[in-house]
């Protein structure tokens, strides 16, 4: 019985000068049921040639030959770094010499007078050789993986260094932005204020002494200075939205809307604007930023209303389950969560649908400044505020039929929908009492 599964037709190189001993060895292995092919050599040259051409799986060697011996043969194996099991078969080696050779690296020893353990030792030697090859392959793979890991670590260190460099650059850029804000709020606005003051004085006291062309030019200077001051203030608002700390809190939009309406009371009354506020759900937001958002959208609707037609502004919100949100097939919405949706629409002059995306670009204006005052920053600020909330915003404009804005903000884990809905219900009940 073969104690270890040996591959078929293993190649056995037999180093033996005694033909009878070699035949006896071959007959024993054949009788043991071993499937093999063998080659018998007795000289150094034929031994070395067989290593190159026969490519043996195992070597069975006599200890002493007239012109060659096992010690020399084994030295050749070691010098060539070959992983071939080497078993000495001899009747004259002696146990002491056998132990010494095994310490040197010889695989095993079998006496010519007793072949009973030969098959078992061949099986064990082949198994150990196979395991050694597997171990070397594993070590080689480990070396390759280690080298790759070192390269990856070097790349990571480089990327971290680049990130630190970018962080420093960003910090410096923020410092420059703060400096710009200071200049905008003081150094740039101060000469503008003086220009506007002197223009006002001239328009009040010197108008009778100025030609009609001069009066027209003076009015145009006044309008340009006013617009420049508005542009600076809008740029400051945009930069503050980009750099402010993000402090979230559960907020009631109805309170924010009423606050904005009170600030815009004069123009609301002048244009006889009508508001429809439906189903507003509290939301976890940066409250002061969202006030700016509502203000910009509402003032835009009032500004771009159709002459002689009272503006109608509808504001409503709801919570969309993720599966319902996915059905909308909106781009740039990768988060797997529920969404809070705010819909804001009016019946104003609107714009062509081809400008639905361009409308949020900073300084983008779709109407002449002579018709409608503004800097083109208001909706860019709205978009930046939505992005600060990790949300998305879409505009749907129709020329002379108004515009609808839809804002979607992911509902965070800290936003307890059930408790908010309960508070909202309690508020509705309170309002009906």
From TrEMBL:
Alphabetical keyword list: Coiled coil, Kinase, Phosphoprotein, Transferase
Residues found modified as 4-aspartylphosphate: 62
| Residue ranges constituting the Response regulatory domain according to the UniProt record | 11-127
InterPro entries, sorted: BphY/WalK/GraS-like, CheY-like_superfamily, HATPase_C_sf, HATPase_dom, His_kinase_dom, HisK_dim/P_dom, HisK_dim/P_sf, Sig_transdc_His_kin-like_C
What the entry lists under SUPFAM superfamilies is as follows:
ATPase domain of HSP90 chaperone/DNA topoisomerase II/histidine kinase, CheY-like, Homodimeric domain of signal transducing histidine kinase
Domain Histidine kinase residue range list? 183-413
SMART domains associated with the record: HATPase_c, HisKA, REC
Q: What is this protein called?
A: histidine kinase
What species is this protein from? Answer: Flavobacterium pectinovorum
